[in-house]
Each structure stands twice: as structure tokens, then as C-alpha cells.
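Exercise 3.2. Students should predict the tertiary structure of the chain below and write it as C-alpha cells, then compare their answer with the key that follows.

Predict this chain's 3D structure.
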Amino acid sequence: MSGIHQTITRLRELRMGAMADALSTQMDTPSLQQFSFEDRLGMLVEREWAERENKKLKRLIKGAALPEPANLEDLDSRASRQLDRSLVSSLSSCEWIHRHQNLIILGATGVGKTWLACAFGTQACRLKLSVVFYRASDLYADIGSAMLDGSLPKLKAALIKPQLLILDDFGIGNLNAQAAHVLLDVVDRRMRSGSILITSQYPTDQWHGLFPDPTIADAILDRVVHQAHRLQLKGESMRKLRAAKRMQAM
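Answer key:
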């Protein structure tokens, strides 16, 4: 085995496949031979680094379980939606997550709250932050199941560990006393470890009445609402607009 082929083999054994592929490409591309050793080595390292970053991003997005593919650069910020563009731009740095602050996205059904939440989730993943997405109704159901089968500690850990917890459609679903107690524990522990993004069609001044226990409501809302940024979405239903575009294209 020649020296260069042995090097390529060793790189693959070291799980540096991208660098091995890049080295093989260099050897098959005469024009690259004009570059210095340092430049060619830099190209190899850059290829390996980019591949690993891409794989890490894919893992983070897969782990987040975001229901919609969404990116902030694709945000529809038409004037009719009255979206605060400067605030969205500021929030896109995800510094609010590093500061353990929260984000609340409000608006009527269909205006794009879930999409925007997913876009912020994707942005956080791009910045190497861990994310988990939950629809509120699904979370309450999972809490009930976990209490029955003894897996509640595992579920709590999965909710507390990520740097960003997205709770979608708050106000929908059966928030009973047991689920509310679990939610309080998660929110309380997340104050010291991460942030929460909540979407809801209900204004925050109506959230208190969504809880079965006013004391728990006070405790949770004090921790979430009072240190949260807010985005209000208005305008027509984005679902209706997308459906109309599909009909026009037919």
C-alpha cells in the first residue's frame, strides 16, 4: 500500500472520513498541487470541520423534533402581520437563551405561531444550542402516562436538560392538577438552566384562568411571563394563504 493510500485508510479508521475524501480529491486534482502544504492541510481540516458541524446540526434538529422545517430568513414579514422586525432580528442571536430569558409568541389560530417557534428552534440549533419541542396537549398526555408507568423522572429530565424548551399551543389540552405540578417543577428548574418559548392563541392576561390551581398559576406565570420577550402575530391565516396559492398553481 502506497504512503498516501495508507494515510487515507488511517484517516478513515480515525473516523475522519471527510478529510480522507478531501485528501483523495486533492491527489486526483493536479491544479491543487500548486498550493503550499500549509494551504492544502488547511483545506483538509476545513472540510473535516464543516462535515462535523453539519452532522452536529442534523443531530440537534433531529433531537428537537420540530414539526415544521422553518428558517428565520424565510419569515413572511409583510406589513399586514405587524411583526416587530427589529425584535425578531435581535432575538435571532439567541442571546436571550444564553441569558435564560423566555419568548412568548401570541396570535390567532393559523397566523404562523408554530412556524415561527420552529424557526427560532432551528436558529438555536444552528448556534449549537439543544432544543426540544412539545405541543402542550401532547405534553400533558405524556405526563399522565409517565406518572402511571413510573417514567416521570426520565420525562422531567428530558424537559429540563435542553437549553430551549418550546411549548406550543399553550391553552389547548387538559392541564389538570398533576400536570400543573410537574410543569411548575420543570419551569422552576429551567430558570437556572435554560429558556422556554411558548406559543398561544390566548393573551397572557388570560393564562391564569387556564390553570386548575391559582397558586400554581401564580408561581409558573411569575417565572415565565415576567422575564419574557413577546411577539404578537396578526393578519390572515397563513394556512388559508398557502391553500389559496396551491389552488392558483393548479
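Discussion points: The CA atoms of residues 94 and 124 lie 6 Å apart. The chain has a mean pLDDT of 88.
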